[in-house]
Design a protein that fits this description.
The protein is mainly α. The chain is built from 4 helices and no strands. Helix 1 runs antiparallel to helix 2. The longest helix is centred in the last third of the chain and has 53 residues.
Length: 122
């Protein structure tokens, strides 16, 4: 390895470990729930493995039949991004249903309050 490659390699390892530590920090501070961070944790661990053991990228690249190892890394990142988008969409859909139910329950309660107010005013 050239010195430049070694410094870039170290930077990628430090960046991946820093990203993992940042996710753990967000979980500890309660800014991110564990169930939503599992994909992020898997992504950061995958990047740490790729950074620490670059040979795994070459082996997986040959297994997948991709021409260039960089394309394989982009491919895995795109898969993780799609998984993250899918999980966010599922969470948003769940929240949308809950908001709709809350709005309906609120409307029913408002109607009951108005009816009770009318009875009291009579």
């Amino acid at each position: 390895m050239k010195p430049m490659d070694l410094s870039l390699h170290a930077l990628v390892i430090l960046g991946s470990v820093g990203f993992l530590l940042f996710i753990i920090y967000l979980i500890k501070k309660g800014k991110m729930e564990v169930k939503y961070s599992i994909i992020w944790l898997a992504f950061s661990l995958c990047m740490i493995v790729f950074a620490c053991f670059p040979y795994t990228v070459l082996v997986l690249n040959d297994i997948a039949g991709v021409i260039d190892p960089v394309n394989f890394i982009f491919f895995t990142q795109i898969i993780f991004i799609l998984l993250i988008l899918l999980s966010v969409s599922a969470v948003i859909s769940g929240f949308s249903k809950k908001i709709k139910q809350l709005a309906q329950a609120n409307a029913i309660l408002e109607k009951r309050v108005r009816e009770l107010e009318e009875k009291l005013n009579k």
